[in-house]
Amino acid sequence: MTIPSTVPQVPTLDDVEAARVVVEGVARVTPMETSQFLGEILGSAVHLKCENLQRTGAYKIRGAYNRLAALDADERRRGVVAASAGNHAQGVALAARELGVPATIFMPVGVALPKLQATRQYGADTVLHGHSVEEALAAAQEFATRTGAVFIPPFDHPDIIAGQGTVGLEIVDQVPDVDTVVVPIGGGGLVSGVALAVKGVARQQGRSIRVVGVQSANTASYPVSIEAGAPTTITTTPTIADGIAVARPGELNFPLVRDLVDEIVTVADDDVARALLVLLERAKLVVEPAGAVGVAAIMAGTIRDSGRTVVVLSGGNIDPLMMERVITRGLVAAQRYVAIRIMLPDRPGQLALVSQVISDAGANVVEVLHTRHGQGLEITEVALELSIEARGPEHAAEVTERLREAGFRPLVRH
Fold this sequence. Notes:
CATH class of the largest domain: Alpha Beta
CATH architecture of the largest domain: 3-Layer(aba) Sandwich
Order of helices and strands: HEHEHHEHEHEHEHEHEHHEHHEHEHEEHE
Helix content: 40-55%
Distance between the termini: 40 Å
Number of strands: 14
Number of helices: 16
Number of domains: 3
Shape: globular
Radius of gyration: 24 Å
Strand content: 15-25%
């Protein structure tokens, strides 16, 4: 995705300040919460910038509204078009409604139903096309060429970057002594805008603020691109953090990230699942996987302590079905939901004995499969597959040790 040469290529701090005036009253100033739990892990105070509580459930309304507000009368008459599987779609749809601009949003077939419904409810004409964001994007660009509608990119435009940068201005307002800001990275619209804002303010104040970007390990295009010296398309693998699953950095975003972001780290899906679980339990916040990668990086120990830290929770739009799967994965990753396989003699009472040992250890059996069929079984054996609830790794280890002491041979399955 490229930006026409007639468009100013590099937004400035002044552009971000101007964007704050534009989006005021449309985008909320989202809350800043503290997290004692994460602070104890990191070693310094940790604050959570709750863009999951933003209108449309994500920061995207900021950039979308700032871009649409800059359209002239003729462009507004022609309408806008965008492609997205979620947050960008809702941001453009709401911005278009607020400004009275016709909007068409292309979304891939199979997009999560809540995101499709929300986009339609904001008043956009939605078109389901293709089975990936890339296919929907190609269709949106063709629609723009054919109809004259203005294409609204998700991250690669100076107005978009400036709008997203208003998150950074709020951060330094709400936590004036912030030392480090942790931001999710997909294409780079949010992190480039936030870095531009916080670094610019810090420079005016004669100090420094460190910016750390976080990508999913399965879609980490920025480390590869920075090493190559130019935006590089990578082969991605599926990730639960689909909101930041972008195979190539934005052309305009890349140099800003390269020059302003101090460090980029990656996190695995299991780290993200654990982070979502912690945010639900400890902070009482619903956050989508892409929005939780900063918390995941702290919990995984990939971000070093460098003073008072703000983590941007970039969005909260998670499909309830996906949430159920992610919570289960988070419980497994935290060893609070443990699968155990035990070979037993095929005689009455063995299941009762196993259940009693687990109960005495203070754990709870939630699922049982008892079968004579399966590979590796002797003719006189049965296989017992158990799913148990434990309080964490130490408790899970205690349960398996109790089973061994009782004469069983438990095998924990990961």
